[in-house]
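Example record

One chain of 167 residues, shown exactly as stored in the release files.
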Amino acid sequence: MKFKLDEKINKIKTEEEMRKEKDSKKKYRLIVLIDLMEMLNITKTSKKYGLDKETVRKWYKKYLENGLEGLEDEKKGPQIKYKLGKIDKTEIENLIKEKNKEGGSITGKEIQEYIIKTKNIKISLKSVYNLLKEMDYSYTSPRSYHPKRNKNTQEDFKKTSKKQLQK
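Predicted C-alpha cells for this chain:
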C-alpha cells in the first residue's frame, strides 16, 4: 500500500487525536497507525504489534476514509435477543405450568425442542436457560437417590412418618 504525501500532516493530527481519545481500543488502533506512518511498512508494523497485515491495512483504510470514526468497533448483526423477541414468554410459562400440573418438571432441552418445532427458531440450550433466567425461573435438579435404595421401603416410611409427625 502506498502512502500519500500528506502523511506527516496526518501523523500530527493522529497524535493529537490519540491524546484526546478515551476509548482504549480506538487509542490502540491510533498508536498502531502512528507507527505505521513512521515506518511506512505494514509488514513491520503488524509484526511489531503481533497483528495480521490485513487488520492493519483495514484500520489504515478506514482511518483514511472516515477519520477517527472509522476506528470504532463495527456494530454486530442481530443478536439472539432479537430472535427471541418472536417467542411469546407466556407460551413458555404455560408449557412449564402444564408440565408441573402433570406432576413433573420440564428440562431446558424440552423447551428448546418446543421452540424449534413451534417457532422454527434455531436456539441453543444456553439461550433457553438465559430466557428462563430472564423470566425469573431457576434451575432445579431432582434429589439424587442411592442406587441400592428400596423404593417400597421408602414409600412405607413416608406413609408412617406422616402419622408419627401428626401425633
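Notes: The mean pLDDT is 77.
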